[in-house]
Write a structure and sequence with these properties.
Layout lengths: L4 E6 L2 E6 H4 L3 H16 L9 H16 L5 H4 L12 H10 L17 H15 L6 H22 L16 H13 L6 H16 L23 E3 L2 E5 L5 H12 L3 E6 L4 H10 L7 E4 H12 L4 H22 L11 H9 L3
Parallel strand pairs: 4-5, 5-6
Antiparallel strand pairs: 1-2, 3-4
Length: about 350
């Protein structure tokens, strides 16, 4: 056998083939470079990639395990409306093969109208990147490399970006929507309710005072570790956001008053009475303003919207976007972001945001 030839398995027989058609490294590199460009082209301006894009990648890698080239007839199911073999079970199997056992998607994007066009598009990219006479072991290694790429993207862009899921029902008062968000945060094992509350208030203040720089401290940064008089300071007012008002909060508010700063304490509605009692016991009952967090945010959003249904819809979408941007910029745990519903994304897109 010559130096530019290689022994490759074709079906059940070994065949001598030219190295140009049986190289395992170069086709993989060409394919992965092309696939990465395709994948990143599907990333929204907010940095998200629809999980159907990832599902398509997994499905195509499985089809490549069995045949090449990836013709349209092969990629499409027999009825021509879906991607052949793509299902939640298929994706679960591939993920498990690569050591990933977390649940991804029950349908695997199979029923989405945009899935098949994406699959056909990706198949053409792979067809262009691989030589038409590619041997079986090269094809199999390429298929595995593609699967590995998409498993990694699922881990980074889906599992590691899992967000707080909450039904945003615009038939409810905005204060109740805020309460729903806090309730969902409280169900997590890490109980990030305080962090979520702080950044919801920060998001609301950013919307209310767009020309004022609103504090962007990590939730672990206590007031005394910054040059601010509270979690947020706007002119002569200090906002203290907490889901668990404690005695040390009275000391901070007393310092505010001593320095000519008006303390405003923002707590969940079920902690308002406790907070009032806390300040009363310290002789600060008539010096500290205590506000229910849900109403503090909800009423302002509705006022900003002039109580118009369409504007309320837009401003709720903006609140979620501001909140997620704060988490993206400040917090190391990006899973604290809220999963924004499609209607909210569409609303912001319609307004060029």
């Amino acid at each position: 056998m010559q130096s530019n030839q290689r022994l490759c398995l074709q079906g059940t027989e070994w065949t001598i083939m030219e190295m140009t058609n049986c190289s395992l490294s170069e086709p993989d590199k060409d394919i992965l470079d092309a696939i990465e460009l395709w994948y990143e082209s599907k990333r929204s301006k907010r940095g998200n990639v629809n999980r159907n894009v990832m599902a398509v990648g997994i499905g195509i890698s499985e089809l490549l395990q069995n045949r090449f080239p990836l013709t349209d007839d092969y990629v499409q199911s027999d009825k021509g409306s879906q991607v052949r073999g793509l299902s939640g079970a298929c994706i679960k199997t591939v993920l498990a093969r690569h050591g990933e056992t977390r649940a991804f998607a029950s349908e695997g994007g199979r029923t989405s109208r945009g899935t098949l066009p994406m699959a056909l598009e990706l198949a053409k990219i792979i067809n262009s990147a691989l030589p038409s006479d590619t041997c079986e072991d090269t094809r199999l290694e390429a298929a595995n490399a593609i699967a590995n790429f998409f498993v990694e993207r699922i881990q980074v862009d889906f599992f590691n970006r899992q967000r707080i899921k909450v039904e945003i029902d615009l038939q409810k008062p905005i204060s109740v929507i805020v309460d729903d968000i806090l309730d969902q945060a409280s169900l997590r094992s890490d109980r990030p309710t305080g962090t979520v509350a702080q950044h919801l208030v920060g998001a609301k203040l950013e919307m209310l005072f767009p020309t004022i720089e609103i504090g962007k401290d990590n939730s672990n940064a206590a007031d005394q570790q910054t040059d601010r008089s509270g979690d947020f300071q706007i002119n002569d007012a200090a906002f203290h956001v907490t889901v668990s008002p404690m005695a040390k909060l009275t000391d901070r508010c007393r310092d505010n008053i001593r320095n000519g700063i008006r303390p405003i304490v923002v707590v969940p509605h079920d902690k308002v009475s406790f907070a009032y009692g806390l300040f009363e016991s310290e002789g600060l009952g008539n010096r500290v303003q205590v506000i229910a967090l849900e109403s503090f945010i909800g009423i302002n959003i509705e006022e900003l919207s002039f109580y118009k249904r369409g504007l309320i819809r837009l401003n709720v979408a903006r609140l979620l976007a501001h909140y997620n941007k704060r988490i993206e910029d400040i917090e190391p745990d990006k899973s604290l972001q809220i999963e924004i519903p499609q209607w909210a994304l569409d609303e912001m897109d319609a307004h060029g945001e």
